[in-house]
Amino acid sequence: MPANLTPQYLAAEQAFKEAGTIEEKIHCLEEMLRVIPKHKGTDHLQGDLKKRLSKLRDQEKKETGKAHRGHSYKIRKEGAGQVALAGMPNTGKSSIVKILTNAEPEIAAYPFTTRVPQAAMMPYRDIKVQLVDMPPVSDEHEEHWVLDLLKAAEAVLLVADLSADPLGQLEFTVKHMEDRRLLPGRAGEIPEQERVPAAVYRPMIVACNKVDDKAAEEDYEVFRQLIEADLPTFPVSAVTGRGMETLRDELFDVLNVIRVYSKSPGHKADLEEPYVLPAGSTVLDFSEAVHRELVGKFRYARIWSENKYEGQMVNRDEPLSDGDVLELHL
Predict the structure, then answer these.
(1) Share above pLDDT 70 across residues of the chain, in percent, rounded to a whole number
(2) 308-314 and 300-305 as β-strands: parallel, antiparallel, unpaired?
């Protein structure tokens, strides 16, 4: 079976070849494993990538021990995807996480309240998205692992405080990440000649916090017009709850995944626990997610979708959309 490697995979592979440090190579290999098509044609390649990743991680641990770099953190990914929050001190990251997830992060009116990463799950329809509340971006207090975790996430939510120079905050945060080769965008969508060598690309959106009243709304419009970064920007308020449902939708959309529901022949569809697949996945990819032994062995599939008539028979290369219901026939 041919591998049929995607542009996203090839971009991550090229970044790996250009990476100059162990840390950068690890991030590139993790990205390659995340976006590689999952089927029998890539089994050997997946195994090779995992072996290389394991060796690099062992090497990193040895060098970390020698350098006495202090604490390090790893957040185990859960749910449909992981979004890390980035911003300067007191922009309201923890308050946003609290509203979206019902978690209870430590919140205070002084800087650097969040000292370690804190993960919480945001309910979204029939799935959950993992949000990671991070220590603030800062040249003075930042640990090496802060950027490591931002790079490891599938997407980044930038948070700015409308009441305290949001334009300057956003420019500082973006520049801070760019200096450390964490850039906005999806590597597979950026022309090869425009990609920065060894850089890690992640989709980013901006939540402008403290849009609490009409006067703040006017200030936000000025901010939106002046912003130079080409990033989707949304007004929110951790006080009134304004914009939080829109932000919830955007945090799902930025992950670029779809929900596909399974249906057994002769039974009702399971509409409670969908399979979460990368956008652009096919019927074959779905069969791989259900069970590896099904790949290439099912006779045909039927689909229930807004764009097709109910129960339409489709082939294994049929692209899937968010919310589709799929029935595999063995």
Answers:
(1) 89
(2) antiparallel
DSSP 293: G
Q: Are residues 151 and 183 in the same domain?
A: yes
Mean pLDDT of 193-214: 91
Q: Give the CATH number, domain containing residue 315.
A: 3.10.20.30
The token pair at 166 is 């949001």
Dist CA 78 CA 42 (whole Å): 24
Q: How many domains does the chain have?
A: 3
Residues 221 and 106 occupy one common structural domain: yes
| 124 and 238 fall within a common domain | yes
CA distance 214 to 221: 11
Q: What string of DSSP letters covers 211-271? A: --SHHHHHHHHHHHHH--S---EEE--TTT-TTHHHHHHHHHHTTTEEEEEEB-TTS-B--
State pTM to two decimals: 0.78
Q: Are residues 65 and 76 in the same domain?
A: no
Contact 23, 60 (CB under 8 A): yes
Domain of 170, in residue numbers: 71-253
- 106 and 197 inside one domain: yes
The rounded distance, in Å, linking the Cα atoms of 291 and 330 is: 12
What CA–CA distances, in Å, run from 173 to 82, 181, 246, 247?
A: 19, 12, 23, 20
Rounded CA separation 129/120 (Å): 8
Residues 91 and 11 occupy one common structural domain: no
DSSP E strands: which ranges in 40-164? 82-86, 118-124, 127-133, 155-161
Return the H-helix or E-strand segment holding 277.
strand 275-278
Predicted local confidence at residue 275, as pLDDT: 95
Q: Is the dihedral of CA 293, 295, 301, 305 positive or negative?
A: positive
